[in-house]
Amino acid sequence: MKKVIAQTEINVNEEGYLTDFAQWTKEIGTEIATDYNIEMTDRHWEVVKWIQEKVNEGAALSIRGIKKSGVIDIKSFYALFPGGPLKVSTKIAGVPKPKSCI
Amino acid sequence: MKNLVILGAGTAGTMMANHLVSKLPKKEWEITIVDQYKTHYYQPGFLFLPFDIYNENQVKKEGKKFIPKGVNYIQKKIDRIISDENKISLEDETLDYDILIIATGSKIAPDEVEGMQGKNWQKSVFDFYTYEGALALRNKLREWEGGKLVVHITEMPIKCPVAPLEFAFLADSYFKKKGMRDKVEITYVTPLSGAFTKEKCSKSLGYLLKEKNVNLEIDFAIERVDNENSKIIDYADKEVDFDLLVTVPTNMGDEVIGRSGLGDDLNFVPTHHNTLQSLAHENIFVIGDATNVPASKAGSVAHFQAETLTDNILLYVEGKPLKEEFDGHANCFIETGENKALLIDFNYEYEPVEGTFPFAGIGPLKLLKESVFNHWGKLAFRWIYWNMLIKGIPIPFVSRNMSTKGKKLN
Ligand SMILES: Cc1cc2nc3c(=O)[nH]c(=O)nc-3n(C[C@H](O)[C@H](O)[C@H](O)COP(=O)(O)OP(=O)(O)OC[C@H]3O[C@@H](n4cnc5c(N)ncnc54)[C@H](O)[C@@H]3O)c2cc1C
């Protein structure tokens, strides 16, 4: 599905996650964040960058992984990305929503 | 003589011993299997034990009885896998291997969450993923007078991911039968974004929670159990009160994997998704719950894996390329209470869908629909488990790779 975000046409899935990371820019991330009433700060970007690196390495994201990463503690992760921090932060980061197997 | 060593004589290890004993040339290969316990448990039965549907004797047997003649059985604790030297150290001896199969499974780690294994452990906080836990919970349920029952998953992955939901459904039936359903409030708490994580399941099965009057709390990432106030609290400060908490704690691979430096964060061994060879060592293979492959951790999955792995061990011995065959195939019954069950059949690629199984258009089992027949299937699974599955006898008409026949794929 196509969508225009930050004046750029990008491909997203039904839930609004980018399907092609190559299309991601910081501006797009910033605009997705506003849907969640999040104003991006350096701390937000630090976490987003870490998530992008992990996904790039092929690692599976989980709350546990974040806890062990040393990049942020879970309480602050929830404070930065209220709601479902993994769901929200991955959407802003332009990477797929973490899968959990049935 | 060359040595093939299997670590763990649970579902997967026992199956591999039975498969390989007749296939590896006896003159060249000696097969050894190691497990710490004398008892082999039928873990799917732990779901039924708390509700007095099964008794103790239906879920355990002596493990040795299922290890075929011609395989050495050692009942000892495995201390370490020394992969650089192709050695295994047990409590008081060392084994050499040419090929190693890791089948040490996964187990609960309640100490991963603050307060979980606290003063109320097995008083008002229970698990049912262990024999001891399921039994203690049965005794509690027999005398419990009602209140808030919370069924909870700590984090994924867990073995048999549908078991907690089945527990909630069976609890509904159990309390109805006891004439006390009005005294019990059932809440299902999950770290996921829905009771069923696969989209098609959610659509077809969403009605079940309503029908059984089970409340749903999603996206709950537990931080701690508050024993003073009988609450579970998550990282976003959400709270759920309970009188009786039935939790599925974090599931992890055995500590021996961690000690040996072979595991990920959760002590699962990084494994090739389709060949089941370990990613780090070409003479180490991994099967069942011990792997990190993104398939369900279930006995049925281990059964399909065992067929591929047997072929691959033989190919490896002959120095031939391995088959990239395992497709994540899982086939699970889901108890929905009141003597009905669902059946789901899926793999890495396809979500569970509606249809018939195993014969296209005929069944007799229905996919993704409740039926009494499926419930019989689930109960028959215990017989199949003890008499066919772990003995490595193929289950008629059910193939190792998922079949798309008889399924409504779109
Ligand atoms: C409540 C519940 C319900 C379930 N329902 C179903 C179902 O309906 N259908 C289904 O298909 N599956 C079901 N399962 C899952 C199924 O039981 C497991 O997936 C299966 O048993 C995995 O087999 P495994 O051989 O990998 O591990 P296991 O069978 O757990 O075996 C591992 C073995 O390794 C041994 N071991 C580990 N570490 C060491 C060590 N350091 N030293 C010595 N020995 C060691 C252990 O003693 C154990 O015997 C259920 C599980 C549970 C808990």
From TrEMBL, chain A:
Location in the cell: Cytoplasm
Positions annotated as active site in the UniProt record: C101
A single GO BP: tRNA wobble position uridine thiolation
Gene Ontology MF annotations: sulfur carrier activity
One cellular component term from this protein's GO annotations in UniProt: cytoplasm
Chief localisation class: cytoplasm
Domain of life of the native organism: Bacteria
A Pfam family reported for this protein in Swiss-Prot or TrEMBL: DsrC
Family recorded in the similarity comment: Belongs to the DsrC/TusE family.
Name under which the protein is recorded: TusE/DsrC/DsvC family sulfur relay protein
UniProtKB/TrEMBL annotation, chain B:
InterPro entries, alphabetized: FAD/NAD-bd_sf, FAD/NAD-binding_dom, SQRD
Pfam families in UniProt: Pyr_redox_2
Domain annotation FAD/NAD(P)-binding: ranges: 3-296
Coiled-coil annotated spans: none
Organism of derivation: Seonamhaeicola maritimus
GO MF terms, alphabetically ordered: oxidoreductase activity
Protein name: NAD(P)/FAD-dependent oxidoreductase
Domain of life the protein comes from: Bacteria
